[in-house]
């Protein structure tokens, strides 16, 4: 496979817009601030006329990064390891008919795909097949199919438990439909929850937040049309509603994401801009007491665009904002009601009005710092903050040994003292955070890490890949 990559890059680089730095507020034709355009692949290249959702996968075997983009007529898979020369590897066609809506999540090296298309069910695709593509772009077949529901608006996966939660189906009143996917190619129905409204989107976590009453429980945070809905789904045969939360000027509670400390739930209302005249509005719920979620504050942006999908990575919130493109916010001081835009990349340069065009979703969890934006009209964008995620190949000051490692790894420096070490998994979740008295060598115990690829960040500037056997 590796011998074929230069040829594939030559063939497919002609179909993408190449790297364009953000200079004086523009990256070519795209307004920007703090984010460079790495490349773009058009919808025509994917053989479709519309795009929708996006997600990502990092191969734990070699650290290669792949963008997954939902299309009207299927799902595209793109190797973005070289983000300036992305490789379109192929498409998995829709299981039934075409649809405006398609959603993808990843678990255990498999993609799980749902759609609003009638009779679509849930497709399962083995992502390790992307290692061996020799005749790109290929037309892929699904590796498994789940027909416990027909159409679904969205799918949520808790990777810690191996359960998928399809939402917006015709089952359980539109509430979450549970599927055991611990064996990805043999999905098994596991019940559902019908005790609240139709659910549009959600996040599910093993709870480790400030409410000690629910520590260790599997908690579902739903965006349920006119409310947020918090449900204990630990026992799949007996899920229990905990509480609901409301806010002012509700029109359509669309999607939300928890901060890392589980204290706040950041949501967007998809229709309030067009119907109430707000500029882009974000509502921050205080969920430190799961039995009593309350609005902490609201933020209104300077543009009119409709907000769509938003995701938290550390102290930043990445929001796909339709005609305003990707907007990035500093959320490090939510306690004091500070929500500050720091970067943006506008994939729809002609207007920021409240209409349904432009950036549908964003995936910011690649260890490389590359960010995927899926645009309804213009295809797949890869952008990056040039000040972050220094390339491994340019770093000689630090060393990791042994690598791969099993129980102990030594981080050493030739010149610069080591004062901070962080380790992230392939989802971008920080799992080790160490502050160190300045030292030129530090020994780390990694015996509790599962086998796979991790990213080590040293002194907040330098990234290194770490393989754990």
From TrEMBL:
Q: List the Pfam families.
A: Por_Secre_tail
InterPro entries the record matches? Choice_anch_B, Secre_tail
Presence of keyword Signal: yes
Query: So which domain of life are we looking at?
Result: Bacteria
> Which part of the chain is the Secretion system C-terminal sorting domain?
401-465
Q: Does the keyword Signal apply?
A: yes
Signal peptide as annotated in the record: 1-18
Query: An example Gene Ontology cellular component term from the record?
Result: extracellular region
Task: List keywords of the entry alphabetically.
Answer: Signal
Q: Which NCBIfam families match?
A: choice_anch_B, Por_Secre_tail
The protein here is known as Choice-of-anchor B family protein
Q: What lineage does the source organism belong to?
A: Bacteria, Pseudomonadati, Bacteroidota, Flavobacteriia, Flavobacteriales
């Amino acid at each position: 496979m590796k011998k074929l990559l230069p040829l594939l890059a030559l063939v497919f680089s002609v179909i993408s817009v190449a790297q364009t730095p953000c200079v004086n507020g523009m990256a070519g034709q795209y307004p920007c601030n703090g984010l460079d355009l790495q490349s773009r692949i058009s919808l025509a290249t994917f053989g479709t006329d519309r795009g929708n959702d996006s997600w990502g996968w990092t191969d734990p075997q070699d650290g290669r990064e792949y963008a997954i983009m939902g299309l009207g007529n299927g799902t595209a898979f793109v190797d973005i390891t070289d983000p300036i020369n992305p490789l379109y590897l192929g498409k998995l066609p829709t299981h039934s008919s075409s649809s405006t809506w398609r959603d993808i999540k990843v678990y255990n090296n498999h993609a799980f795909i749902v759609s609003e298309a009638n009779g679509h069910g849930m497709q399962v695709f083995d992502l390790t097949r992307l290692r061996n593509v020799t005749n790109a772009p290929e037309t892929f077949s699904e590796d498994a199919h789940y027909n416990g529901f027909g159409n679904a608006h969205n799918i949520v996966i808790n990777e810690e438990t191996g359960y998928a939660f399809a939402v917006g189906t015709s089952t359980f009143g539109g509430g979450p439909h549970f599927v055991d996917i611990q064996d990805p190619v043999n999905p098994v129905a596991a019940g559902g929850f019908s005790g609240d409204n139709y659910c549009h989107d959600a996040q599910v976590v093993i709870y480790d937040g400030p409410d000690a009453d629910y520590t260790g429980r599997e908690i579902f945070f739903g965006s349920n049309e006119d409310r947020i809905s918090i449900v204990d789904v630990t026992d799949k045969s007996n899920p229990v509603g905990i509480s609901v939360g409301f806010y002012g000027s509700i029109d359509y509670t669309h999607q939300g994401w928890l901060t890392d400390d589980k204290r706040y739930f950041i949501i967007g209302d998809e229709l309030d801009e067009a119907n109430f005249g707000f500029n882009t509005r974000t509502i921050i719920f205080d969920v430190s007491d799961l039995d009593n979620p309350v609005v902490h504050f609201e933020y209104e942006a300077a543009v009119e665009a409709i907000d769509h999908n938003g995701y938290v990575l550390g102290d930043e919130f990445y929001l796909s904002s339709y005609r305003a493109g990707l907007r990035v916010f500093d959320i490090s001081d939510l306690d004091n009601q500070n929500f500050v835009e720091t970067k943006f990349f506008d994939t729809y340069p002609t207007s920021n009005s409240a209409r349904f065009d432009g950036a549908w979703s964003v995936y910011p969890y690649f260890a490389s710092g590359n960010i995927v934006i899926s645009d309804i009209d213009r295809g797949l964008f890869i952008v990056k903050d040039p000040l972050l995620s220094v390339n491994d190949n340019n770093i000689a000051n630090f060393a990791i040994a042994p690598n791969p490692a099993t129980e102990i790894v030594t981080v050493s420096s030739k010149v610069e003292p080591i004062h901070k070490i962080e380790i992230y998994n392939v989802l971008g979740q920080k799992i080790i955070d160490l502050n160190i008295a300045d030292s030129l060598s530090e020994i780390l115990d990694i015996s509790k890490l599962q086998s796979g690829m991790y990213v080590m960040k040293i002194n907040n500037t330098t990234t290194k890949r770490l393989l754990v056997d």
